Amino acid sequence: MNKKWMAGVLSAMILGGAVAGGVNHPAFAAAPEAAKKVIAQQIDKEDQEQKDNDREVADSVEQANLAKEAKLTQQQSVDIAMKRVNGTVVKTELEDEDGVVVYDVTIKDSKGQVSEVKVDAKTGSIVKVEHDDDQNDNDTETNDDANG
After folding, report:
1. pLDDT at res. 148
2. I need a labelling partner for 15 at 20 to 30 A (CA). Which of 47, 54, 146, 148 fits?
């Protein structure tokens, strides 16, 4: 909106100057380049502000922020998850799960089934267990939180 308004005002000023002062006037000859520069600077400024507003937080920064909130260590969360699902830990990462900081512990069992156990990083309770059955392409989910 601001870009269009600014461009319109500057265009009107340039055209108005041309009509009132004549096309051969030295001030008018310099005006288009100056106007282009002003418009380009304004557009660049607004584009940069938009990029700053749209920029996502880098993964490393997000992980650091989540780690500050976690009371359990990664190993403690793995130990808790392994009590629920037997197998080999494939991956563990901190996540924000609906406003709760959790360790997402991915475990592969001896039959090849992959499960994700979400352990609350503050309390150690299991929030959710998701089973991914690759053979049948079925996903099953168990919520262990009090809400459902």
Report:
1. 44
2. 47
Contact between 89 and 105 under an 8 Å Cβ cutoff? The reply is yes
**61-113 confidence digits (pLDDT tens):** 888 889 899 999 999 999 999 999 999 999 999 999 889 999 999 999 999 99
Structural domain 71-143, CATH architecture: Roll (3.10)
> Do residues 128 and 144 lie in contact, with contact meaning Cβ atoms separated by under 8 Å?
yes
- Virtual CA dihedral for 35, 41, 47, 51, nearest 10 degrees? 180
Residue type at position 25: H
